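Worked example

This section walks through a single chain of length 118. The input is the sequence exactly as stored; nothing has been trimmed or padded.
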Amino acid sequence: MKVFAVIVIAFAFCFSRDGSAQEAAQEHSREKTLKGDLARGKAIFEITCDECHDAYSREARTGPGLQGLKDGKLPDGRPATHDKLIDVVNNGPAEMPKFQDRLTEQQKEDVVAFLMTL
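Given that input, the structure is written out below as tokens.
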């Protein structure tokens, strides 16, 4: 029994030092805290993003069309993960404005929930 306890503690210690395990735990914690709402996300998108991005087409406006994000790829080919979409919303690539201080954390989660359905 003591050997099992030592193995469990050693295993936990290894993962506590692993950055990817910590990032996964933080992501899981954030997802438990904030859940995106599709309807709110769509409404926020239509007010905030639709002028530059077409949600239902791959055709570009000022920014790229976003159809197909649910297939796991951004228009530039990078993975369309939850964290990557949050980063894009916060920091906006190229000429896209940054929304880090313009949207609440909940609004960002709502928009990302909507984007992941496109």
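What to look for: Confidence is low (pLDDT under 50) at residues 1-19.
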